[in-house]
Design brief:
The strands form three sheets. The protein has a seven-stranded mixed β-sheet with strand order 1-2-5-6-7-8-9, with no helix packed on it. Strands 10-11-12-13-14-15 form a six-stranded mixed β-sheet. Helices cover 33% and strands 22% of the residues. It has one domain: Ribonuclease Z/Hydroxyacylglutathione hydrolase-like (Metallo-beta-lactamase, Chain A, 4-Layer Sandwich), CATH 3.60.15.10. The longest helix has 24 residues. It is globular, with a radius of gyration of 19 Å. The protein contains nine helices and 15 strands. By secondary structure, it is of the alpha/beta class.
Length: 269
Amino acid sequence: MLEINEYGDVIQIRMSREWEGKPLYWVAAYLVDGLLIDTGCAYTAAELVEFLVGKRLDMVVNTHFHEDHVGGDSMIQERFSVPIYAAPAAIPSIAGQPFLFPYQEFVWGRPAPASALPVPPVITTPLYAFDVIATPGHADGHVVLLEKNRGWCFSGDIFAREAPKFIRPEEDMGETIRSLERILAAAPPHRLTLFTSLGRIVADGRTALEANIRYLRELARKARALQRQGCGEEEIVTELFGGEHLFARMTDGQYTTANLIRSVLRMTD
């Protein structure tokens, strides 16, 4: 299932596996001036390729290696013979067969292996230049693309919402804060639009990133205070969130509020 939206020169391609006539989980890729940023999941790869037929496609950049961002890589590479770029840390996973939990297989499917090249510091198209900024925290080898003249930031999964309630176990909120600060330092002072992988377009991106940073730091402060009072992890989750999130059961214990609490308690800033 594809849904196409246009924002000036940016084409947003929202993709989801269809189940009983309904989308399971939307993820967005973006096509701008011949550059495709991310390729969605394996279940929508054929639809994405058909959409791209007849359009200019010069290259692909993966913001990171997760299965909902690289699922179309192999089919696009075979059909269009265009280079695919990713951070060096992400390349082995894109070329291999990483472990997936059953929920990942069901919602997004298993990507076919693809060959990726190390992404250069700047991606240039005929009209635009995108700075490639390392933004670990959500995943090793995560990058964002920042077009300073237009104030566009294609943010992958480093930013999803201002106040996250659950994360994966490998996510690092300290690194996430540093990555968000890196984006803010590089972006134009008065213009920053976030094009997120969830499909949300955030016109006031600077305010959103600053709010995300404040939320994580305040959450860490509250969690540490409860820990000093002798509260354990489960008690902290209950006190601050009213209990574990439903996603914990839906994702085989991968996306949990407990993961978020563990991560903010490890933060050093």
